[in-house]
Amino acid sequence: MSFGKKEHEFLRDIGLGPQNLGCYVNGAWQGNGPVVSSVNPADNQIIAEVAEASIGDYEEGMQACARAAKLWMQIPAPKRGEIVRQIGDALRTKLHHLGRLVSLEMGKILAEGIGEVQEIIDMCDFAVGLSRQLNGSVIPSERPNHMMLEMWNPLGIVGVITAFNFPCAVLGWNACIALVCGNAVVWKGAPTTPLITIAMTKIIAGVFEKNKLPGALFTAFCGGAEIGQAIAKDPRIPLVSFTGSSKVGLAVQQTVNQRYGKCLLELSGNNAIIIMDDANIELAVPSVLFAAVGTAGQRCTTCRRLLLHESIYEKVLSRLLDVYKQIKIGNPLEKGTLLGPLHTRASKENFVNGIEIIKSQGGKILSGGSVPESEGNFVHPTIVEISPTADVVKEELFGPVLYVMKFRTLKEAIEINNSVPQGLSSSIFTRRPEIIFTWIGPPGSDCGIVNVNIPTNGAEIGGAFGGEKATGGGREAGSDSWKQYMRRSTCTINYGIELPLAQGINFG
After folding, report:
1. How high is the pLDDT of residue 490?
2. Which residues participate directly in catalysis (predicted)?
């Protein structure tokens, strides 16, 4: 176990030890399930151990959470916003420690780890303002002496199941808004990032404790599929937010639907960048690099397909191959590293197998496609020349693999962009207004995120995040995403002395 290493001393400052309890239940820590190891993907050494949740832990936690939810929903929304503000301030004091933990346990470079935690802090700020703007509508009634209006009330409990690639930011997108909307939160973090789940929960729990509020308002479990299935099946949880693969997301949705619950799904992406003949190449090339290689290709918004206009194909490809040679692969905590490891050994094996499938379907490896000698889960960033109709192009290989293809017309490029099952993010590089407005309009991209002259990744919290088709249709973070975390009532009030339809009838 590497917990004793000098570079890991910071873990004690965020409440972690060599052995950790992985359930925060009714304001206390416990863990009666299997003991698992958290592993550093850069060297596959054990960082620390965690006792996961048992089904007994889950049931105990849910009973307490259901009781606490009834209290929380009656607290005025601005006061709930004040608690979320304090959570943001508490996270600020541990920003760099938490960011370092994300980098250590997940494998993304340090700047990305810190940026992920900052995203939760920003969501707290966003949610504080939102707590005074949960507005309904007043609707003109066609009946005399009647008023019609909309009321928005809490759902009760929101379940949040997050993935390894953004082990805490996605919690922030959901929990900050769910809390100000008056819901308690049940969080199941990714099984392979339990230390992040524990460290984040300790900070959040400290705020509730300081304000003499029930810790059960934020209930957290480290655990695997068994706990995830329990959340999906639980009728006490009206809304389940799930982030993960399209295959698992579909199963979660079917389970939740069977009990008439609601699902918020953030699933696979297969994102394309289109570079037109008039594009600013100096802007486009670093954007492609950032989108294709960042987080070792393990973002749902990673650029996986690069569509180049035939007139600039060779020029852009040559520049891209040159910058790929300059990518520094290594320990994500070291300064200058651009590409850290894949998250698990299994991810590395999937990469190797994926390259063989790509070759078997006519893909030509232009750069990378191999694995360096290392104890960690490192792979070389890869560029592949391939037909857009190859079956493998329609699947999401979760690693730094970029498919490059050629097109002649904007119509052809949009058809290729829209030809995959997924519909998360997309981007076009051009200077022509007619292309921009075609791209963002009805005949354009069919994705939930449609960018111009910026890469496919790096979404801002102020806008709703999510995608269409096999990406699941969910929307998180900004805009009016808060409406998913509440129930809407249309209320008609008769303030007169008569019921219009009852005139002329004597009711005695």
Report:
1. 97
2. 266
| Cβ 266 vs Cβ 466: under 8 Å | yes
SS3 410: helix
- Rounded (10°) angle between helices 110-130 and 77-93: 160
Mention every residue, 6+ apart, whose C-beta is less than 8 A from residue 395: 270
In angstroms, the CA 415 to CA 430 distance is 17
Long-range contacts from 321-326, C-beta under 8 angstroms, 24+ separation: 321/366, 321/367, 321/383, 323/285, 323/286, 323/289, 324/289, 324/367, 324/368, 324/381, 324/383, 325/367
- Report d(CA 260, CA 243) in Å as an integer: 20
Measured distance between the N- and C-terminal CA atoms of the chain, rounded to whole angstroms: 84
Burial (CB count <10 Å: 0-12, 13-18, 19+), residue 506: exposed
Question: For strand 19-21 and strand 45-51, is the pairing parallel, antiparallel, or unpaired?
Answer: parallel
What type of residue sits at position 312? I
Which residue from 450, 399, 396 is spatially nearest to 425, judged by alpha carbons?
A: 450
Mean pLDDT over each residue of the chain, to the nearest integer: 96
Q: What is the C-alpha separation between 292 and 315, in angstroms, rounded?
A: 18
Catalytic residues, by residue number, are 266
In 3D, which of 28, 71, 89, 22 has the Cα closest to residue 49? 22
d(CA 207, CA 120): 15
Q: Go through the domains of the chain in sequence order and give each one's CATH number.
A: 6-267+472-489 (3.40.605.10), 271-465 (3.40.309.10)
459 versus 450: the higher-pLDDT residue is 450
DSSP secondary structure letter of residue 328:
P
3-state class (DSSP) for residue 296: helix
pLDDT value of position 459: 86
Residue 39's H or E segment, with its range, is strand 35-40
Rounded CA separation 362/270 (Å): 19
CB atoms within 10 A of CB 32: 16
Which of 239, 234, 148 lies closest to 487, judged by CA?
Answer: 239
Q: Is the pLDDT of residue 2 over 70?
A: no
Cβ neighbours of residue 437 closer than 8 Å, sequence gap 6 or more:
none
Quick one: pLDDT at residue 503? 63
Question: Which of the two residues, 344 and 6, has the higher pLDDT score?
Answer: 344
